[in-house]
Amino acid sequence: MKTCMIYGDMSSDRAGEQYPSVPVCDKCASHVTANRESSCIVNMWEYDPSLGDACEFCGETIEDEATGNCN
After folding, report:
1. How far apart, in whole angstroms, are the C-alpha atoms of residue 53 and residue 11?
2. Structure pTM?
3. Domain boundaries, the chain
4. How far is Cα 57 from Cα 44, in angstroms, rounded to an integer?
5. Could you tell me which residues are beta bridge partners of residue 54?
């Protein structure tokens, strides 16, 4: 699991809504960043549990990822 800054609501006046930080599972992070041209990920760093435990894109939890029960 990673924490990723993604493109959000670009019409918002708030930076946190324009570029929210969300949890993303390793599978989705590698899939999304494989195509840099169309990637919605701006930046990526270590997982921050305060942001939640479910992937923003597929909904897999950190427990699913740790036990190998990912889709």
Report:
1. 27
2. 0.84
3. 2-67
4. 14
5. 61
List the beta bridge partners of residue 61. Answer: 54
How many other CB atoms sit within 10 Å of the CB of residue 7? 12
The whole-angstrom separation of Cα 2 and Cα 10 is 23
pLDDT in tens, 36-47: 667 888 899 999
Nearest to 29 by CA among 43, 16, 9: 43
Token digits for 39? 């990637």
**Cα separation of 30 and 43, whole Å?**
13
H helices of the chain, where?
Answer: 15-18, 26-34, 62-67
CA dihedral 32, 52, 71, 31 (to 10 degrees): 10
